[in-house]
């Protein structure tokens, strides 16, 4: 093919242009608007809404549970909702470079079909009827590329070697979403290799943090989180093998659920190092609300994915677990007198001190939960840096042969951030791999023993990483353990509050580098998210606990606001 003889730069440029051509002319921004966006620090909220009409703002401001209910009640149509999100996603891409694939026409055609079905049968076809759902560019959708950020896979689907199957394969999760009534409309950007906590590739370049364009959007599901921060999506899917749905959610002020890998189907999903099966990547859910995470987990498990994917453990959605933990607190998050309060461990640091906004976020949660009558204890687990070391060794075990093979298809280079980490090397030997596996199993056992030693611990929470300098051990150790985690937004960095503590003495060179990287001016306005962690297959439990934590924070915030108003009023009297 002629395309195969073109340079990687030309192929990438053609792909970028083709993607932009798929945006309707009426949704394209002027050069003046694009220039304005370039100078804008915060693209969220009123800025992006300036390109939408009142109805579009109303629709994209609702969460997923509201949207499916209003479609079911006949207050909104699937076409109205899909059109609003397609337009917002189109604008989001133009101002923040977050989409690798656009298929709005296909989405609107499906939405019209769903509306016709609803008009004919007076009922929805499933719990996600008419809801637009975005996907990280690892999931195969018929008729659409899956490049996963590699130039060599433009015009094809990564991992699909049979030419007859190109654009015909469909990830099992995609099949499930369609059966539930969802509308698929775009695929979001990823970093080259997937193995970095930012989102950069040689096809479309870099995706920034829409809350603060001086910061990273995270990765590898960074395009997904950035799109949600701009309300171009309220519910979508990413994957996580080292923090890839947790880091972006924390960076962008959204929610995410990283389940144990065998809870949701990974069948027919493109991946880096697909043969590395010792510590698996997990399909994760990303949303603008906690209710959205719950909605999607419940809906997808209702399809019984284990019947089609033998790797999925047959665990239906457990309403009883959700209810059991919900009863531990009242609606405002305060401990229920008729039940035991929650007991949570807090990890303040793993030897690399979190930046001031994150430490403040930890204090916000700790103070809220204690005020609500719950128990908070110190969490001092086995060295998480050791867990990260073992995990990273697995990811590099093949000597970067998989990554280099993908690059060789087009001749594209590694992005600068990865040039050292993914140089071609000899793979480790089988005995070395087996020894590494033993180390991983030992680490899992040590961590489990420590958790058991804390007696009736319901969960733990601690920092997620913060842009632009992430610290992998806060996220990667969970992938060695295959634990469950939910990320919640807590606050935003404030340069007037989160000042540098000049008296702090770093404990190591890495700690010093991280501490000196903090600049209150640059970080100002950046979201702060924390992860709440449970053990294997505790998704419903951690979702329920996360709701209690969020409610407790909201209650404390309301009380503090009321007290401040009362104080100001008294001062004026």
Automatic annotation (TrEMBL):
Positions with a binding annotation for substrate: 194, 220, 241-244
Keyword annotations from UniProtKB, A to Z: Hydrolase
Chain ranges of the Amidase domain: 81-543
Gene3D superfamilies: Amidase signature (AS) domain
Region (Disordered): 454-473
GO function terms (MF aspect): hydrolase activity
Active site: 136, 220, 244
Keyword Hydrolase: yes
Pfam name, any one: Amidase
UniProt cross-references to SUPFAM superfamilies, sorted A to Z: Amidase signature (AS) enzymes
InterPro entries xrefs: Amidase_dom (IPR023631), AS_sf (IPR036928)
PANTHER family for the chain: AMIDASE DOMAIN-CONTAINING PROTEIN, AMIDASE-RELATED-RELATED
Listed name of the protein: Amidase domain-containing protein
